[in-house]
Amino acid sequence: MNQNNEPNMPIRVMLLISLYVVVSVIAIWRASTFQAFDLITLGVIPALIGLVKRAPWTKVLLLSYAGLQTLGFAAITTTAMIAYQITPDDVKLVFQGYNIPLFPLWLLLLSLVVFQWWVGLSIATRDYLIEK
Question: What single-letter DSSP state applies at residue 92?
């Protein structure tokens, strides 16, 4: 009989790992294509490795990474709101000829940051990272 005493990975951690895999691929593509290196995109790689390996430092790194994203999100949102008050016609996001609506993008980014905080602060994640 092969009994596995390790606790199962919580679904929220699986979803976070899936999100981090996608973001890691995009970060590596962005770094190799545009030679753009920054902490917000490439910082996901150590967090992903820590979650997969269940390293003891992962919780601190996960909360630090979510905090860094929260600060960046708040700064960009504040800047966009101020710019919109000055010249509303100039505040738009165009990527490869496509006009991206800002409010749905803002909601998506906010939900991703809130999701990371929820997973990082949950008891299930703490138990998963502590028990080996």
Answer: -
41's enclosing H/E stretch is helix 39-42
**pLDDT tens digit sequence for 89-117:** 888 888 889 999 888 999 999 999 999 99
What is the C-alpha to C-alpha distance for residues 106 and 65, in angstroms, rounded to an integer? 19
Establish how many alpha carbons lie within 13 A of residue 22's alpha carbon, considering only the half-sphere containing its beta carbon: 6
Question: 27: number of CA atoms within 13 Å, CB side?
Answer: 17
Contact at 8 Å (CB) between 57 and 50? yes
Return all residues near 61 (Cβ < 8 A) that are at least 6 apart: 46, 47, 50
Q: What pTM value is reported for the model?
A: 0.86
Q: 116, 69 in Cβ contact below 8 A?
A: yes
